[in-house]
């Protein structure tokens, strides 16, 4: 149960405290932000509405802790991370239960999120000790006009305080995918959890507390992003922002100062199905990719461009699979669960109505109860329909029938989003050439888009992001290079 047992210190009455300097602390604002259960639409939890002074306090605490943490040997940093991973896995049921209630993720997927997060931390610790223990040794003589009288030792050093802002759909996993790399690289972290998903994330923060990390190394501030977000992201004490979410990330990057940014934003992942594709395989991946977690994944298949000649057969196979999806509450482990909010459900409905009015064909009857939306396949979508371009973040999937592969590639490249995409064909030469032509961060051949395994690079182009994630890239991104140049009194060449 949330806020019970080993997690009892998180609560001040019925309000979850924020975490600063190694202690769960009530806000001085006297205000809280309510979290509504997306399934029941009833109030669920309350989190602290932190003040700007409390943000300052967290940043100061992060600054002080980072100075000491940077002097902790790598093996010890890794040891702490392994301990954290083990504690999180021990506490997986409680954390997953929060996810079920707060973000309506089905129990099975919520457990996967927590365990995957533990594995991600373990891998980060292992990878980090290798990446960070290696630097570069350069000599001056390759550059014209130089003798070998300078040795350059380049190493990776921490950035300082990393601000981590995850979204609601993977609040725990996308928090640790920022925290793990930041900590192993010697940084401290100020975490601002998404409001919806904050309680699950704060339980993960308590695992950090139980793992015995130094006080102040990770602080967590809570409150509405729209209220404390700008103050926090433009705070002069922040040395890096790692953000995952929607267009908010574009606004943040415009305001941020001269600090490294890692932005993973929205996606409109195109699935291109060719005439020679294995249609059974394509249909399986379209349904898994389009409807899992009710389509609320940045990497969800968000538009299918299928060659006209095989469209009817593909649609038939997709519809057969949609029929088998269970629809209901996350506690029952249903495939389709309520979407995150009423606003989101209304937005999704608006996209479907727009497509219907403009002549698209819905293969299933539109059905909605509260935030629960039954899965819909929208066929014969044309470029003048909003759903051809916009990201629904819901269980509704548009099909565009195309006359040529070029038309599908063009649709993929004309979108502002460019996170992932996929192509289904049995011809590997074609698959590679099409993957090259699709201008997105990652193209999957014969499988739906996906972020994992978590050590793979993960990046969006255009409005889908800046920089690249994945364990290895995140560790490298959360460091800067420091060089020490040894100037010898004269040229020195080692003899064989
Ligand atoms: N590329 C990727 O890896 C992913 C992208 N996404 C994208 O995220 C979107 C859905 O997630 P959602 O959580 O709704 O996204 P939002 O952009 O609304 O929110 C993301 C995070 O930003 C915070 N936030 C809001 N306003 C500000 C602000 N002014 N300054 C700083 N932080 C702020 C939110 O806090 P609060 O909740 O308090 O408002 C939340 O923690 C979709 O577009 C989806 O595609 C999602 C997951 C992965
Ligand atoms: O937040 C998201 O949607 C993810 O980054 C996608 O992760 P997944 O591909 O593992 O679901």
TrEMBL record:
The active site is at 264. Its EC number is 1.2.1.9. It holds the Pfam family Aldedh. Keywords: Oxidoreductase. It catalyses: D-glyceraldehyde 3-phosphate + NADP(+) + H2O = (2R)-3-phosphoglycerate + NADPH + 2 H(+). PROSITE patterns: ALDEHYDE_DEHYDR_CYS (PS00070), ALDEHYDE_DEHYDR_GLU (PS00687). InterPro entries: Ald_DH/histidinol_DH, Ald_DH_C, Ald_DH_CS_CYS, Ald_DH_CS_GLU, Ald_DH_N, Aldehyde_DH_dom, ALDH-related_metabolic_enz. Transmembrane segments: none annotated. Residues 24-484 form the Aldehyde dehydrogenase domain. PANTHER family: ALDEHYDE DEHYDROGENASE. Belongs to the aldehyde dehydrogenase family. This is NADP-dependent glyceraldehyde-3-phosphate dehydrogenase.
